[in-house]
Amino acid sequence: MISAFVFDLDGVITDTAEYHYRSWKRLAEEEGIPFTREDNEQLRGVSRRESLLLLLKGRVLAESQMQEWMERKNNYYRQYLKEITSADLLPGVQAFLTETRAYGLKIGLASASKNAKDVLNGLGIMALFDAVGDGYSVSNTKPAPDLFVWVAGRLDLPPDRVVIFEDAEAGIAGALAAGMYAIGLGPAERVGKAHVILPDLRDAHVQALLDRLPATPR
Predict the structure, then answer these.
(1) Within this chain, do residues 38 and 60 fall inside the same structural domain, yes or no?
(2) C-alpha separations of 126 from 5, 38, 87, 118, 122 in Å
(3) CA dihedral of residues 175, 176, 182, 188 (deg, nearest 10)
(4) DSSP character string of 162-191
(5) Gap between the Cα atoms of 24 and 17, Å rounded
């Protein structure tokens, strides 16, 4: 029996992708590194360190310099986050979270972002979440299953009673590796391995989604 819905943050609950893009773009321009919106797409759903490695495109930095660059990027991002409000929830999210809570399901977050709690607070929805897994929770990030397993543990649930909502290929892979159900939000070429694919949560309803899931996640 499904007992919890666990959500990624960026691209699922809100879209801070533009803030991330502006932050990485600013850093890249300061350091003379070409960085496009197409490059930014490759950073979807991965950790800050992995994002920096992708931005570097094979360039090698000392660890101390990598730490300084990541901190600089994060400072830019946090400046932009001060602008976020409940108006930045993606369409359908507030209604779906409210319906999920009314249905009696637990709600969790599994995000690679180290700023996830600040974002939830800015959006005004922190109180809806029973467990929040973020970039501080585990060492191995998506597509490793570790973060999803960590959140399931905080919810006191086995993997096969958890449904993950993801918009990134790495997130879908991690959910499936964890032995959980996966609902993909976005184009099939990105989330096509999910059990169910939706464009977004705009017209989503709990029972209708549960009815579309197979008997087991594997």
Answers:
(1) yes
(2) 15, 32, 15, 9, 9
(3) 110
(4) EEEEESSHHHHHHHHHTT-EEEEES-HHHH
(5) 10
Rounded to whole angstroms, the Cα distance separating 11 from 209 reads 19
Which residues are known catalytic residues? 8, 10
My answer on whether 31 and 97 are in the same domain is no
Residue type at position 36? T
As separate numbers, helices (DSSP H) first and strands (DSSP E) second, the chain gives: 10, 6
Task: For residue 204, tell me if it sits in a domain.
Answer: yes
3-state secondary structure of 122: helix
Looking at the fold, whether 65 and 147 belong to one and the same domain comes out as: no
198 and 103 within one domain: yes
Per-residue pLDDT averaged across 134-155, rounded? Answer: 96
Q: What is the pLDDT of residues 152-190, one digit of tens each?
A: 999 999 999 999 999 999 999 999 999 999 999 999 999
Is the domain of 27 the same as that of 119?
A: no
How many structural domains does the chain have?
2
With respect to residue 74, please indicate whether it lies within any of the assigned structural domains.
yes
Q: Among 51, 81, 111, which residue terminates a domain?
A: 81
Residues 91 and 193 in one domain: yes
Cut 0.90: pTM above it: no
What average pLDDT does the segment 22-35 reach? 95
- What is the DSSP-derived secondary structure letter of residue 205? -
